[in-house]
UniProtKB/TrEMBL annotation:
It comes from Niallia taxi. The keyword Cytoplasm does not apply. Pfam families: CN_hydrolase. GO terms for molecular function: acyltransferase activity. This is Acyltransferase. Residues 3-257 form the CN hydrolase domain.
Amino acid sequence: MKIRVSAVQYKLQNIKSFEEFAKQCEHYVRTAQEFGAEFVLFPEFFTTQLLSMGDGQNPLTINELPGFTEQYQTLFRTFAVQTGMHIIGGTHVIRRDDKLFNVAHLFYPDGRIEEQAKLHITPTEVEEWNMEKGDSFRIFETDKGKIAILTCYDIEFPEIVRMAKAKGADVIFCPSCTDDRHGFHRVRYTCHARAIENQVYVVVTGTVGSLTNVDFMRANFGQAAIITPNDIPFPPKGIMAEGELNDDMIITSDLDLSLLYEVRAKGSVTTWRDRRTDIYTDWETIEG
């Protein structure tokens, strides 16, 4: 009933080749493997590091990032197969029907790749990068249970996490990318709210560092955290583990799923069971 998870505070720094990117990613993957992780989470937009290979005269733009999709997927599929871990490969920008989508990737140990497009996109993504919203939401079956992947801004909308819990997800993975304290705390506080409301675990992480020649990725403010409901079996502040703010590092912790079932049945509060579904939507009935 336990899952060991790691979350990467990925340091964005200028690189000159895809091989440099691959080497940095391998460092984090191997570290998580040494810690015995079964799931490892990378942040949102971490593959924008590939755009830093452009120079001042010929900078790479977000429209060119989908050109790295095959290399990125091959790299992370190999990592997952070699290590036996489930890797939530942050998000990567892909092109479908000449439109850009911000897509989270789940790499299974058996070589499968599954995707979840970001459902709620920020004004910057729309106005500066001309991105499109994802149009479907799903739960991922793993040999350790059901999980959901909700990217950054997604976690700020309580309805979608209600749906995830109704579909059976016990762990929400939230890859994130925020450029200042305001955005960081918005995501962090709502992660805690979603964990309390739905009595689930939330694993969140963000980018740190800077890409000095990539528009809208010059500033990053991030911290990984493994968040629990606030009840007696868990830490009082609802934080199982957290990284050092804005440092290049990885955190690891064990998630005991049996504790979730315990507090849902007889916790100090039973927020999932005590929903007023006579007043508002019962997603469990609709999604079940």
